Amino acid sequence: MIIVMNEKTIAVLKQAFKEFYFKNAEKITAPIRMKEREFGYMSFDKVMVRHLSFQTEGNLRAFLIKEMPHSVYYSCAYYYEPILAMDEKGWKGADLIFDIDADDIPTRCKEEHDRWICKDCNFMGKGKRPDKCPKCEGMRIDEEYWVCQSCLEATKDEAMKLMDFLLKDFGISMENIEVYFSGGRGYHVTVEKSALEELDQLARSEISDYVSGIGLSLESLGISKRASYEKMRRMLPLTNESGYRGRIAKFFSETEFEGYDGNDVRDKIIYIYEKMKHKNFENFVGEIVGKLSAKIDAMVTTDIHRIFRLPNTLHGSTGMLKRRCDDLLSFDPFVDAVALGEEPIQIFVDHSPKFTLKGKLFGPYKSERVKLPLMAAVYLMGKGLAEAD
Amino acid sequence: MFKRQDLLKRVGMEIEFGLEDLAKYPFLKEAGDYVKELSLSVEDLGQEDYRPAVERAKQRVMEAIQKNYISSEISEPTVELLSFPLALMLVKAMNVEYIIHRYSLAEAIRAERLLKEEKKSIISYIFKSTFNVEPISVEHELFDFKINLIEYLKRATHFHEPEWKLINRVVENGFVYLKTYELVRLIREEIRRKIYDRMKGVSLPSMPKNLKEAVHEISGVLPPPSDRFQRVTPEKFPPCVIHTLDLLKKGQNVSHYGRFLLTTYLLSIGKSVDDIIDIYPRSPDFNERLTRYQVEHIAGMRGGRRRYKVPSCRTLATHGLCFKDKILCATIRSPLQFGKKPPFKKKSTRQIRE
Ligand code: SF4
Ligand SMILES: [Zn+2]
Ligand SMILES: [Zn+2]
Predict the structure, then answer these.
(1) Within a domain: residue B352?
(2) Does residue B195 sit within a domain?
(3) pLDDT for B124-152, tens place per residue?
(4) Position B284 in a domain
(5) Is residue B14 domain-shared with residue B76, that is, in the same domain?
(6) Residue ranges making up the domain that contains B285
(7) Catalytic-labelled residue, pool A95, A99, A103, A114
(8) Helix (H), strand (E), coil (C) string for chain A
(9) pTM for this predicted structure
(10) Quick check: is B305 in a domain?
(11) Which of B329, B337, B346 to mutate to test the pocket of ligand 1 (most atoms within 8 A of CB)?
């Protein structure tokens, strides 16, 4: 694993980014209400600069070509004075943003392609990072993520569930929602130009809990230990209801349960409730909600000052674009978000699993010198798995 | 002196809104306007004719102080209606901050009680004209109204019971469904604030004798000050907790979230439910049963659910409750870590989403 990029690698990456921004300048578009937002960027030497502001699209384009940053960010928030210190900016409102990150979704492929290494004793392992090193008990552990097709498919599923909540439950119009592939490990779903922008942190955390299925009580489904079956019968959800009640009713109605063959959903729920008893039933509903809800990163949605990667800019760790998905279902990040060209360059790869970009298969590599198209070379160098040769 | 026709015209013809209704909800602008149009002078109020109104005003205030309750039976609408601005004058004349709080809350609870039983059309009208919320009446097995999601969230986030969590509501197409009593509960704090602000704005003329006497009489029933704080005296409490306790001691209003902080914090460091309930009597809107319920609920003894955790410093900061000590709070993320962690710098957490 390459921890610090060498200068040659940085120079190659910068050059690739510069050329891309130069050739595609007109594709870099300003976010709405640009002047009210804070901008920031990180250079390839990992220096973070914040509290910037751009007045015109032209300024922004010129800046990208000149600075060749690793990453460019803009705030979800609108401020009176975006360049002042945080508590002096004057918060006006913020887009409501959801982040779905492969990191937060347990997928089986992670056991195969993720690795960690103890900084103290160099002990290495596969899969998710342990809290402390099993060998020396050290806590300083570096992780190495890899993102594969099935990781990204999993994030897409979560994004689809999220969209359903936004459209049906919250009544947000499709025109106000943008879905972006983040350029890295998942999707950003942004709600703009909506009255929701005035919501504070507390209200956003309610929204976040709602879509992630946190805190649902059985009482909201009409179920309680004290209620009689007659009362429950009246209060239980039906499949034509909306929100969680409707979703849960649909789940029960569509799922086969041994011993029940009627088709009245309320009867069916009571039947299962009686069989399982309260505690087990509660756990069961918890599992159902886990399936129905969308796995978003709650910290992101509730942070009203956060900065996000700017759409149509390159992700410094992959060389891929943060790109709007016009059709989420058919969007394929490893084709549609690949931005750099195919001119060959020679690199030294420390190690890499197999991967595909624009339908071309690469790897696996292990301590070898290879000639790869720019897009693939940058992909590996950005991740710290290869160096310019 | 009152023409029903005029009143109907004023509030729009679609609903029936009479003197009786104004008497029920005297904090409404319409009620204020009506009283204004009577153009009474302060001297008038000293007259025998107005004795019943003065009596009722006195009763309102006494009930609020002694029982946290203001009766809502209306014998004579004009008397009832007039007694409200008079009661405001009496309370204002006493000039005790916590009585002002206590009285406005009692009035808000009275209004809540009446609104719960109110006709849907009148509820909708009052919400729209006075609180800028437009509840839409629905025909539904379980609910009476729906309101806009944003209007709901702005208010419901102040409640901590699980039933107010958005996920436990029926949410459809940007609307949240509510029963009448829930809708009304949602707005109670705003009614209280309205009355409180109104009182702050009352200018005190030199009062006739009968009103002065009323003020004197009421002052006689004020509860004696006592010290209920002994059992929870600060040892090494974090600044946020000390600040909130101070507010309580001074008899000032502590926000819902402030109380939530105090209660969760004191429970976590091992104070008993009774000790905690004891610190609240000084608060302007103390209601022992309700406080006990809330404290026990937070302690996880009620509602069969979880015990609530002390909010994080970050959350407290967003509620304006953090009074960070530059050194002692430098490395902590929760008030519970105060005084337990050595104050050295740690790397900041990841802030940016790739
Ligand atoms: S930093 Fe935490 S403990 Fe210190 S005052 Fe703020 S909220 Fe309280
Ligand atoms: Zn180790
Ligand atoms: Zn994977």
Answers:
(1) no
(2) no
(3) 999 998 899 999 999 988 899 999 999 99
(4) yes
(5) yes
(6) 227-337
(7) A99
(8) CCCCCCHHHHHHHHHHHHHHHHHCHHHCCCCCCHHHCCEEEECCCCCEEEEECCCCHHHHHHHHHHHCCCEEEEECEEECCCCCCHHHCCEEEECEEEEEEHHHCCCCHHHHHCEEEECCCCCEEECCCCCCCCCCCCCCEEEECCCCHHHHHHHHHHHHHHHHHHHHHCCCCHHHEEEEECCCCEEEEEECCCHHHHCCHHHHHHHHHHHHCCCCCHHHHCCCCCCCHHHHHHHCCCCCCCHHHHHHHHHHHHCCCCCCCCCCHHHHHHHHHHHHCHHHHHHHHHHHHHHHCCCCCHHHHHCCCCEEECCCCECCCCCEECEECCCCCCCCHHHHCECCCCCEEEEEEEEECCEEECCEEECCEEEEEEEEEHHHHHHHHHCCCEEEC
(9) 0.79
(10) yes
(11) B329
